[in-house]
Amino acid sequence: MDDLERLRKQEKLLDTYTEERECDYRDRHYRVRDNGSVLRLPKDPEKPRKGDNEWTFGTHHTENQYLFIGSHQVHRIVATAFHGEPEAETDVVDHIDTNGENNRPENLRWTTRLGNALNPATRKKLELMTGMPIEEILKDMSILKKYNLPKKHQWMGAVSKEEAERTLRNIREWAKKPYEIPKTPYEPRGKVLRPIPARNISPLRPTPYEMEHTTREPVADEDEGLPAGCIRSLTPNALERSWRAPYEFPFCPQQGGDLKSYFEAIEIGEEVAIGKGYSFFATEKAMRRDGKTICLKTLSESGAKQYGVMTITMEDGWFIHEGHSYFHEDGQEKYFTIAKGEEWTGGEVFDDFC
User: Fold this and answer.
1) Separation between Cα atoms, residue 144 and residue 212, nearest integer Å
2) 108 bridge partner residues
3) CB count in 10 Å sphere of residue 48
């Protein structure tokens, strides 16, 4: 698709909405649509600034996935217009589907910084580390100081009692609501939803959502004699099949190992695949009865599909890693059961249609 066609599609998307509201955010007044787009009104109608009076989904200022208009984050403006002011100035906006570019109101909710950080993967990691359910941890976050938390999570041990209580309240409220994948103002491509950048068309760079759903083509190199459909990983004797980028597999035997020794080495709660910007840790492991396949349940702290199933086999002396991800935990459970060679009796799940 060329840039002109992309612009035309963008303009059509900007005009596809059902509701429009207005709000004040910081020192500016905005019109906001329920497709996640915003229009900034000029302070002085006679002297509009560049970017005033124009509908936009926002632009990227940094390498993170959030969209901005000027120096303001679009998701905070949309949340203010459709959900009101936050309970506390320090509150942040949670993107329910974890896609920071999907700023439709139904995908946004105000929460604490702690609540935003406690995605399913992080919750599970804390529960595995402490042996306590997240509800108990939230009653006294200071207990986390006893554990060797990753550097990016060490601040959690100093969270105030008030913030922890508000976070727990939010989690309980959210649990009462059925989970649905929010609609996106994006261009459908088969089963993939590809975000269309707003006024940020050249050069086109992949968004986090694209990276999550884009599979890298296998490298054809017959001289190396790699098994069909495989690419090299960052671990010398490990290959990947149907994965989008090379990963490191820290528990993979380096020399002379087999599937049994690999299976025994894997530690639940630890990272089993580490890549640039993405990592997966194991929450459950099993060996197929024939001893020829390791099956893992995994969780990731980023991406729209955080639940995963990884299988590990051996071909021609290589450890072959294959992974698939899912929106819902029941999707993970179904395909983990099938990977183990067992019968699934739970019927259809949401991920069957994604």
Assistant:
1) 31
2) 95
3) 14
Gap between the terminal Cα atoms of the chain: 24
Instruction: Give pairs for 81-90: CB < 8 Å, separation 24+.
Output: 81/21, 81/22, 81/23, 81/30, 81/32, 81/105, 82/21, 82/32, 82/34, 82/108, 83/108, 83/109, 83/110, 86/110, 87/166, 88/112, 88/166
The Cα 31–Cα 41 span in angstroms is 8
> What gap in Å lies between CA 344 and CA 120, rounded to an integer?
24
232 contacts: CB under 8 Å, gap ≥ 6: 219, 226, 239, 240, 246
Q: Could you list the pLDDT tens digit for every one of the 354 residues in the chain?
A: 455 666 667 778 888 899 999 999 998 999 999 999 999 999 999 889 888 999 999 988 766 678 999 889 999 999 999 999 999 888 999 988 778 889 999 999 999 999 988 877 788 888 888 889 999 999 999 999 988 887 888 899 999 999 999 999 988 888 777 655 555 554 433 333 333 333 332 222 333 333 444 444 444 443 367 888 899 999 988 999 977 788 999 999 987 789 999 999 999 888 899 887 678 889 999 999 999 999 999 988 766 688 899 999 999 899 999 999 888 888 999 999 999 999 999 988 888 876
- Rounded-to-integer distance, Cα 124 and Cα 305, Å: 15
Q: How far apart are CA 295 and CA 273, in angstroms?
A: 14
The phi and psi torsions of 259 (rounded to 5 degrees) equal -65, -35
CA atoms within 13 A on the CB side of 336: 23
- Strand, coil or helix: 19: coil
Between CA 239 and CA 229 the distance in angstroms is 10
3-state secondary structure 208-266: HHHHHHCCCCCCCCHHHCCCCCEEECCCCCEEEECCCCCCECCCCCCCCCCHHHHHHHC
CA nearest neighbour of 255 among 322, 317, 315: 317
Give the residues across from 220 on adjacent strands.
none
Q: Which residues pair with 72 in a beta bridge?
A: 69
